[in-house]
Amino acid sequence: MSARLPLSAAQAGVWVAQQLDPGDRSFNIAEFCEIRGDLQPELFERAVREIVSETEALRARFGIDEIGLGQFITDPADWSMSHVDVSGEADPNGAAHRRMAAELAREYDTETGPVFSSVLFRVGPKLFYWYRAAHHVAVDGFALSLIAGRVAGMYTELVTGRPRQQLPPHSLRDVVEDDARYQSSAEFERDREFWLERLAGLRGPVSPVDWKPSGNRDSIRTGRQLPAEQVDRLRALARRAQATWPEVVIAAVAVHLHRATGERDVLMGLPVSGRVTPMLRCVPSMLTNAVPLRLAIAPEATLSSVIRHTAGELELAREHQRYPQERLLRELPAIPDGRRQFGVDVNIMAFNYSFSYAGCQSVTHNLRSGPVEDLTVNVYDRLDGTGLWIEFDGNAGLYGPAELAEQLDRFVELLGRWSAEDADRTIEALQGPSHEP
Questions:
Q1: Residue 348: CB partners within 8 Å, gap ≥ 6?
Q2: CA distance to 60, 234, 282, 429, per residue, from 423 (Å)
Q3: Which pLDDT tens digit goes with each residue over 187-237?
Q4: pLDDT at residue 55 above 50?
Q5: Are 228 and 388 within 8 A, CB to CB?
């Protein structure tokens, strides 16, 4: 027998989008852990299987029955965890990445399952890559991090005998019931009124390229390390502006779009976890949302005032982060060119996402976070003093590799002009030459 649950609003949005384009693979999300040390593959697989057994979201199947759309939590089913040894290849790292790219293109049948996959690559004598992926209707990136941490704890327990931390007594049912309560609450209506008022008179999102409907949701990626000394300058600027470094970077994305388009009314998308209570933060599930961030960028404004303006708008957006973007997009006036999203997304991941597997240290690398309609700016801080890693994900129908690299170059150039000494200078004085799309 399987337990039947409704879907969260975030899940329902993904499910509907997938039904509209069954061949779309962009809802596959994936990452891999680079694990260094004497990992024991057999015990590692046992740990993964234990965590899959206790994670309801990974055992879900999705479909329509006599009641309607639902998710059905099945007993732990047979599924295969692949072990791939590429250590003998001429280029082990390249071989592993090619195999991961092929895995990322696979189709998940959300009606029959499984909705996830797991592969352990042996890349060298003491180097392993643990690839994990899932359909976005089941889990989001936050959930993948929870699962990885629990596998690390289980593996450590199996190797050392030390019991792992006891999990909170919450279930997926608690999550979807909380979501349902929110959608029938006064808070839901207040959030709706806030967003409709906040976005009144909006002309639509801005793009650094000549945007056109492409029907393509595949993406390409380029990345760059921002040196530690440059990050130190951004942190000093944040202190001068009474803000945080993520707020400085988000303001920089808005100024980048202003510089590329000349627009003063800049709309961006802000991915948020949707987890506003301790209970929601401890159950692997799909709750992530994207909210609009509308910023006024004037050339005559000082750098510090733009950063403070950004910080204030971010605080408001997070206060109202649970209102489903799919619902909001239906309620806003249609955009003539057919865009559904909020334009460029900016996703700041300022957390230490590394785990110890019985003493084997790991670093996590994101491979895909979901569909990219235009451009997504991802910024990672591993909290290890090495600086920030910036990735640009571009819609493959809008950006080629050269165009995407050029966008990243311009953004890094802009950040290089910012420091605490420039806090009272105007955006116009700092931005350098403009670039028309």
A1: 246, 249, 250, 379
A2: 51, 11, 39, 11
A3: 999 999 999 999 998 887 889 988 776 667 789 999 999 988 999 999 999
A4: yes
A5: no
Q: How far is CA 273 from CA 45, 103, 180, 232, in A?
A: 29, 26, 17, 27
Helical ranges in 322-361 per DSSP H: 325-331
Query: Are 285 and 362 contacting, i.e. CB atoms less than 8 angstroms apart?
Result: no
Q: Which of the four pLDDT bands, split at 50, 70 and 90, describes residue 28? A: very high
140-197 tens-digit pLDDT: 999 999 999 999 999 999 999 988 888 888 999 999 999 999 999 999 999 999 999 9
Question: And the tokens for 28?
Answer: 């596959």
Indicate the pTM of the whole model.
0.92
Question: CB burial class (10 A; 0-12, 13-18, 19+) of residue 42?
Answer: exposed
Q: Which residue is listed with tokens 């790292």?
A: 93
Residue 251 has pLDDT above 70, yes or no: yes
Asked if the bond preceding 114 is cis, omega within 30° of 0, the reply is yes
| Lowest mean pLDDT across 73-82, 270-279, 343-352 | 343-352
* Coil vs helix vs strand at 375: strand
Check: CB of residue 260 under 8 Å from CB of residue 413. Answer: no
DSSP state of 269: E
Q: How far apart are CA 292 and CA 308, in angstroms?
A: 18
* Domains of the chain, first to last: 3-171 (3.30.559.10), 175-352+371-430 (3.30.559.30)
Beta strand 265-272 with 219-226 is unpaired
Q: Which of 194, 256, 303, 284 is nearest to 408 (CA)?
A: 256
Give the per-residue pLDDT at 411: 96
* Pairing of the two strands 360-368 and 28-36: antiparallel
Angstrom distance (rounded) from CA 114 to CA 61: 8
**What token pair was written down for 89?**
């290849």
Residue with tokens 């600086």: 387
Bridge pairing between strands 3-5 and 388-395: unpaired
CA–CA dist 100, 119 (Å, integer)? 9
Q: Which residues pair with 388 in a beta bridge?
A: 226, 381
CB-based contacts of 400, cutoff 8 Å, min separation 6: 220
- Residue 270 three-state SS: strand
How confident is the model at residue 295, as a pLDDT? 96
| CA atoms of 151 and 50, how far apart (whole Å) | 8
C-beta of residue 24 within 8 angstroms of C-beta of residue 99: no
How far is Cα 326 from Cα 323, in angstroms, rounded to an integer?
Answer: 9
